Amino acid sequence: MSKRAYHHGNLKQELIERGLEFIDQNGVESLSMRKLAILSGVSSAAPYAHFENKEAFLSEVQNYITEQFTDTLQETYESCHDRQRVLLELGKSYVLFFSQNPLYYSFIFSHGDIDINNYPPFQMFKNIAGNVMNEIYDGKIGEHDIYNKTLAMWAMVHGLAQLYTLPAFRMMDSQKVEQKNLQNASSAEIQRIDERIENILSSVEI
Amino acid sequence: MSKRAYHHGNLKQELIERGLEFIDQNGVESLSMRKLAILSGVSSAAPYAHFENKEAFLSEVQNYITEQFTDTLQETYESCHDRQRVLLELGKSYVLFFSQNPLYYSFIFSHGDIDINNYPPFQMFKNIAGNVMNEIYDGKIGEHDIYNKTLAMWAMVHGLAQLYTLPAFRMMDSQKVEQKNLQNASSAEIQRIDERIENILSSVEI
DNA sequence: GATATAATCTTAACACTGCTAAGATTAAGG
DNA sequence: CCTTAATCTTAGCAGTGTTAAGATTATATC
After folding, report:
1. Which of A5, A139, B12, B20 has its CA 20 to 30 A from that of A74?
2. Which of A73, A70, A60 lies closest to A33 in space, CA to CA?
């Protein structure tokens, strides 16, 4: 008997997992179907029994990340019982998700044609933000302004997420605010970014 | 004599221009050195006399776009004499630049490792924004908060730029605010986006 | 349980890619 | 004018996505 049976048994799942890992470590640019196949101990054409083409494969990997992202936001939302802080917490969660897996960001938001209007995490953020705005500005401003403020908030958070994706920016930012630089303590860095996002977001009146 | 002389005479420049045009129309994903070479009437290996590799070529194209972007911001800044509106105008200019050439956005900001801390248009925006903030909050808030507000402003504008890059979002947004939908009148659409950005940005107190 | 069918995998091949080495052609400078 | 450097072509390598044909195995049906 050779190393593996003729049938892998779990190839589709393994390809997706290896794809995730590869993108997280190297980015999507250098990912190839053939390499993933070989890594999974299978011939270079085997993946095409499970995915129509590379694009379809990447799309499934995207969905996987999107689910993780949505779940993260959902958990943050549910565990926040202070209605005053829900947007702040959601924003921090948003930024931290991508700052912990920087290469996911460009993979999801540039290298694909996501349907922005039906993209679950965006809908979720916009819905919650809209609700919060409605509570805060109850009848004081028009529906129009509520929508504008929601968009402004979303754009700001999304922009910050991209910034904190870049190591160079993180370094510069941590120097600028003169925090104790515990470079390698990753849990400390997470907390530092957490504080930074809190400060930045609450520096504007929305 | 054949179609062209053995020496092209202006190959480097033509490749960059064709690269710009190709990215603007098709995105960087499907760009290949060979295609550009053939389009320029030259053999497929000729480009490598002018560029070390594909990455170096794309980097030069990036610089080209970056210059255009910086110039656009600069012109906007210089032609705005109302100190109260300078940030608003700069933000609109920022967003409009990429909404007019959507594929430039993902090409510049994802498919490359720009040195964010030395990236001219970012430095420019941050400097101007910082100065304006200093004027507005003259001594009333700390240097720290000024920096945070500057970052918040930049992130918001940058996030909006990405949003207005997506046709699906533009449609949805124009429906939401119930503007007259002059779909094909591109100059009208520019003005519409211009108004939208103005409204969104001025909906938050920064 | 045998057999038909469908799913999965391998091998081989095609067209395309980035890129290089070797040599041809032309421009520039002494 | 002649040397040198710049520019281009031709061939070719290794790697890519993808497909067609056929081998192997799981699944369902009688």
Report:
1. A139
2. A60
Which nucleotides of strand C come closer than 7 angstroms to any CB of the protein? 7-13, 16-22, 25-27
Q: What is the pLDDT of residue A181?
A: 55
| Euclidean distance between CA atoms B153 and B126, whole angstroms | 9
* Chain D bases closer than 7 A to any CB of the protein: 6-12, 15-21, 24-26
Q: Do A152 and B156 touch (CB under 8 A)?
A: yes
> For residue B11, which nucleotide's C1' is closest to its Cα?
D7
Q: Which one of B98, B156, B163, B193 makes the best mutation probe of the A interface by having the most chain A beta carbons within 10 Å?
A: B156
Residues in chain A with CB shorter than 8 Å from the CB of B115 are 168
Contact A111 B110 (CB under 8 A): yes
* A76, A197, B61, B66 from A96: Cα distances, Å: 12, 9, 32, 29
Instruction: Report whether A11 contacts A50 (CB < 8 A).
Output: yes
Q: Position of tokens 């998700």? A: A97
Work out whether the CA dihedral A66, A70, A75, A76 comes out positive or negative: positive
pTM above 0.85, yes or no: yes
Please list, residue by residue across B78-98, b when 16 or more beta carbons sit within 10 angstroms of its beta carbon and e when fewer do: eebeeeeebbbbbbbbbbbbb
Tell me phi and psi for residue A138, to 5 degrees: -50, 95
User: B157-204: per-residue pLDDT in tens?
Assistant: 999 999 999 989 999 999 888 765 555 567 888 999 999 999 999 999
> What is the full DSSP assignment across B94-161?
HHHHHHHSHHHHHHHHTSS---GGG-HHHHHHHHHHHHHHHHHTTTTS-HHHHHHHHHHHHHHHHHHH
Q: How far is CA A137 from CA A122, A131, A150, A164, B177, in A?
A: 22, 10, 12, 30, 19
Residues pairing with B205 in the sheet = A205
Closest-approach residue (CA) in chain B for A200: B148
Q: What is the pLDDT along chain A (206 residues), one digit of tens a residue?
A: 345 788 888 999 999 999 999 999 999 999 999 999 999 999 999 999 999 999 999 999 999 999 999 999 999 999 999 999 999 999 999 999 999 999 999 999 887 678 888 999 999 999 999 999 999 998 899 999 999 999 999 999 999 999 999 989 999 999 888 765 555 567 888 999 999 999 999 999 88
